[in-house]
Amino acid sequence: MVRTMRRAGFVVLTVVAATAALSTTAQAAPKNGSCETGEFCVYENYNRSGGIVDWTGPDTNYKDNSWFGTTDGIDNETSSAWNRKACQVQLWQHVGGSGAVARISAGRIIDNVRDDTDLGDNMASAHTMSC
Fold it and tell me: Where does the signal sequence lie (predicted)?
């Protein structure tokens, strides 16, 4: 009886551990240089090229961010964006979330911030989310 209970406990723990590992790998990993489902991403150049930063949540101060794998700051350097979240993202001109804004609906790709939004090229300093 004790052996059976130990074996059953081991099986349950193994299943729980395997389930936790699978659910962890399915989630987006912010700031890993890859724009994954559930993230909002900005790019240094047009057409989603050059440097990238990816987030799963809001960031109201781009001054403390750099392009993935570099020390180059991203504040006022964004030229394109991709909203892979299931909610709207607001890309703001000023730190804290004020000034001109680009409202980017769920799933939308902005290949040219200057031409595709009211926010000019290289003017983004923050983003918020309406989730």
Answer: 1-28
Per residue in 67-94, pLDDT tens? 999 999 999 999 999 999 999 999 999 9
H-helix or E-strand spanning residue 16: helix 2-26
Per-residue DSSP letter, 66: B
Residue ranges and CATH numbers for the domains of the chain are: 40-130 (2.60.20.10)
**What is the rounded distance in angstroms from the CA atom of residue 65 to the CA atom of residue 51?**
12
Q: Which residues contact 131 (CB under 8 A, 6 or more apart)?
A: 85, 86, 87
Contacting residues for 58 by C-beta, under 8 A, at least 6 apart: 126, 127, 128, 129
Which residue did the predictor score with more confidence, 117 or 11?
117
Q: pLDDT band at 30, cuts 50/70/90?
A: confident
CB 94 within 8 A of CB 60: no
Per-residue confidence (pLDDT) for residue 89, from 0 to 100: 98
Q: Which tokens sit at 26?
A: 């399915």
Q: Which of 107, 113, 66 is closest to 93 using CA atoms? A: 113
